[in-house]
Write a structure and sequence with these properties.
With about 120 residues, the protein is α+β, with helices and mostly antiparallel strands. It has four helices and three strands. It has a three-stranded antiparallel beta sheet with strand order 2-1-3, with helices on both faces. The radius of gyration is 28 Å and the shape is rod-shaped. It starts with a helix and ends with a helix.
């Protein structure tokens, strides 16, 4: 549901009253990323959808309350961080294996070179 201030802002951005009414059924709050400034903001879900439809914002997360929204945001950030750590660990393990195989391969070549040199 749009607040009076959000309705005024939507009107100032070029929406008609008829268009705004279409968004009234949306409930809750949304965390958005303002595409003009890059700043994250919290608006009603209705107004966030208005901004998203005008390509002015990207909806990041929607919830019933601001507290739930922030809790969801923290959980999402924690999951993203854990996923990154897991991917980085996998990359490091693969690099270690590659380095180890490279060392043993190089050792084999050096051993063969010594044998050839002695002959």
């Amino acid at each position: 549901m749009l607040s009076p201030m959000e309705k005024l802002e939507a009107l100032s951005r070029g929406y008609s009253l008829e268009e705004i009414i279409e968004y009234e059924q949306l409930r809750g709050v949304a965390l958005i990323k303002d595409l003009e400034t890059g700043v994250e903001k919290i608006y009603s879900h209705s107004f966030a959808k208005v901004l998203e439809d005008r390509n002015l914002a990207e909806i990041i997360c929607v919830a019933d309350t601001v507290q739930e929204l922030m809790r969801n945001r923290r959980e999402t950030a924690r999951r993203v961080t854990q996923d990154r750590v897991n991917k980085m660990t996998t990359v490091i393990e693969r690099l270690e294996k590659l380095l180890e195989s490279s060392r043993s391969g190089r050792r084999g070549l050096l051993d063969e070179a010594r044998i050839v040199k002695r002959s």
